[in-house]
């Protein structure tokens, strides 16, 4: 597979790539600096906005030119064209935790994970006598927040297969991908089962995306790669090998959504990059979060 570096050493924990079709550009975050980046491939242009101390994820809003980000203990709106930044609503973030991966679901709700600030993915297993403090949350378009899966250490990648009514979610600490029954109308997940055990792969699973054939593309932190797996059969369909160890997330982008954009985190040997790969697969665009709260704080 052809792989090229398109953004080099731009931050420490580069995460959450999201293709924004309204601007034909790639958005991503540096979680630990609270910065949102936009890369425009046709112009080879990179710009950024600092939104806070920690920026977990970025998703498209439904209004033209609007980006929504989970930052510190709130949701913020960014308008890249003008640089306007507004706070939408607070989030009940416990002390010592931060946002991690997040996406908007097909029902229009934001699904986002939280984890301890000093959580280390290289040592992702949780001791049995210590209860993890992170969780998976659902945020409605009016700002109502519910913890739908508590006691998670490192909640990570997400993907929805609407044809099968399944929500897939990475639990990095278990080196697994779980499958839930997903109800789009009620925005509910139920009956989690371990769909993929990735303990035999190098590294641990991190961010994730799905292609149009229902295969999962999973970034392997510490594994120098993204792997492609059919979650129904468990068959490994392929992989993208990278020069960076801590591969953090991936998403499909480009005008035909046939380019896999991959992020990495910095370590002593390098990293903090964004790569573009030709995989022969294509994805779908992200779902939009349509904020309809009464007030902007």
Question: Your description of this structure?
Answer:
The protein is mostly beta strands and 297 residues long. Helix content is 0%, strand content 53%. It has a single domain (2-278), classed as Neuraminidase (6 Propeller). It has no helices and 24 strands. Strands 1-24-23-22 form a 4-stranded antiparallel β-sheet, with no helix packed on it. The chain is globular, with a radius of gyration of 17 Å. Residues 120-126 have low confidence and may be disordered.
Topology overview:
Blueprint: E1 2-7, E2 14-20, E3 25-30, E4 35-40, E5 45-50, E6 55-60, E7 67-71, E8 74-79, E9 84-90, E10 97-104, E11 110-116, E12 134-139, E13 145-152, E14 155-161, E15 166-171, E16 176-183, E17 188-197, E18 204-210, E19 216-221, E20 225-229, E21 236-241, E22 247-253, E23 259-264, E24 274-278
Antiparallel strand pairs: 1-24, 2-3, 3-4, 4-5, 6-7, 7-8, 8-9, 10-11, 11-12, 12-13, 14-15, 15-16, 16-17, 18-19, 19-20, 20-21, 22-23, 23-24
The gist of it:
By secondary structure, this protein is mainly beta. It has strands spanning 2-7, 14-20, 25-30, 35-40, 45-50, 55-60, 67-71, 74-79, 84-90, 97-104, 110-116, 134-139, 145-152, 155-161, 166-171, 176-183, 188-197, 204-210, 216-221, 225-229, 236-241, 247-253, 259-264, 274-278.
